Amino acid sequence: MDRINGADTTNIGGGNRGFKDENVVGGIIGTEVTAAHLNAMQEEVLKVVEAAGLVADGDDWTQLWQAIQWMISQNQAGALALFKNSLVFPEIETADAKLAIGDNNDGTLFIGGAQTWLLRGVFRFSSDDTNLADRTVTTVANKTYHVRWHAPGTGAAAPIETYPYGRFELVDMTAAAPPEGDSSYDTTYDNMLVARIVTDGANASTITTFINRASLSFSANLAKAPSYLGSSAWRADFSADLNWSRSPKVWSFSGAVYCNAPGSGNYVLGGANIPNGIAIWRYGWGVSFTTDWLNTSSTALNAYCIAGLKGE
């Protein structure tokens, strides 16, 4: 392809030939538009269109765009296939590793723009890759939903030619079996659990966004005063929120209810530092430690818990 080569061109910068307007009153001759130039433009565009397997259609003014999207998807499909054995979970590149979701307060929610994440540790996507309409979801009252993102060519984002940048999906989990908190709904290598949305009777939404990192971990050293249960039993309850996109797979808890001033009739009567009530899921964890202290006031007792959890 060449720049316009008809008579009376003008220098549009850098010595490049360009068009100029005709001005009859001013005696300025416009640039001659040649058949060679128009044919070159036509064939250059149609080469791209037809290479994508499309048939030229004068009524469809989007064919060049369609062809470019197809070529992007083909390159992406090949690249994604090369990294199928890269077993790295998606990682959102925001400060808290979550995708922010906005509420229009009219029963629609939207994934905010200018947020990026890595797929398989290699491919970077942005929420701006998807137009606002396709990252806006509509809810109804008294429902529980999951918001998910599918990688190009997978799940709800197939075929890749249609969804070269993946696809957001709102999934009704209200009557899901197993329930929505089950680990079977966790983020996978190509399918990201983004958020949970719970609506009330007025269709007002409570949004819980999930942390998506390639590696998920939590550790803490917590302390508190225990509570008296009666019959010499003292218990301390510990818990923390996680809101992970994947359920914890490995965890460790150690703790104790201990006396600051043992002796003088203060001693362990029965069991000591018995863990119970362990609860672990993507939303958080909880554990209790119980010790039977005889003749001990609450001011003499303390409790601690050292917790460690890791995702798959």
Concise description?
This protein is mainly beta and 312 residues long. It has helices at 35-51, 63-82, and strands spanning 10-11, 17-18, 91-92, 101-103, 108-111, 116-119, 123-126, 136-138, 144-150, 167-172, 191-199, 205-209, 217-224, 227-230, 233-241, 248-259, 267-268, 274-281, 284-294, 301-311. Helix 1 (35-51) packs across helix 2 (63-82).
Overview of the molecule:
The protein is mostly beta strands. The chain contains 2 helices and 20 strands. Strands 14, 15, 17, 18 and 19 form a 5-stranded antiparallel β-sheet that branches. Strand 14 and strand 15 (233-241) form a beta hairpin. Helix 1 (35-51) packs across helix 2. The mean pLDDT is 91.
Features of this protein?
single chain; 312 residues; mainly beta; 5-stranded antiparallel beta sheet; 4-stranded antiparallel beta sheet; 2 helices; 12% helix; 37% strand
The biggest sheet, with number of strands, parallel, antiparallel or mixed sense and barrel status, is: 5 strands, antiparallel
- List how many beta strands DSSP finds: 20
Q: Assign the structural class, choosing from mainly alpha, mainly beta, alpha/beta, alpha+beta, or little secondary structure.
A: mainly beta
Shape descriptor reads: elongated
Order of helices and strands: EEHHEEEEEEEEEEEEEEEEEE
Low-confidence stretches: none
What level of helicity do the residues show? 10-25%
Number of DSSP helical runs: 2
- Beta-strand content estimate: 35-45%
Mean pLDDT: 91
Alpha carbon gap, first and last residue: 54 Å
Radius of gyration: 31 Å
